[in-house]
Design goal:
97 residues; mainly alpha; 4 helices
């Protein structure tokens, strides 16, 4: 098995849905009416927040057995997060006390 946990398939599918919805909204936005634009904005806000949570959680526990796949996955999550995911590793584990 490639994944460490079988339930990580749900996270992978969630990230894939984010990219599909983003691509759909990007290519078809000129033909949408105002109601559809509002729906897509709300939907993309939800998926952006969800992908930010997935990015955060993927730094705490690995998803793949293979380190190369893990690095590629973090690069893909960087596209959803808008900031390099690997830069959060040090700050996330920094002890303030």
């Amino acid at each position: 098995m490639i994944l460490l946990n079988n339930y990580d398939v749900l996270s992978l599918m969630h990230v894939l849905n984010y990219f599909i919805i983003t691509q759909f909204a990007w290519n078809l936005h000129p033909v949408f009416s105002c109601e559809y634009v509002v729906v897509f904005v709300v939907l993309l806000c939800y998926y952006s927040f969800s992908c930010a949570c997935i990015t955060h959680n993927s730094l705490h526990s690995r998803v793949f057995h293979n380190r190369t796949l893990e690095t590629v996955y973090h690069q893909i999550l960087t596209l959803t997060y808008g900031h390099p995911a690997k830069t959060m590793v040090r700050v996330n584990f920094l002890k303030l006390f």
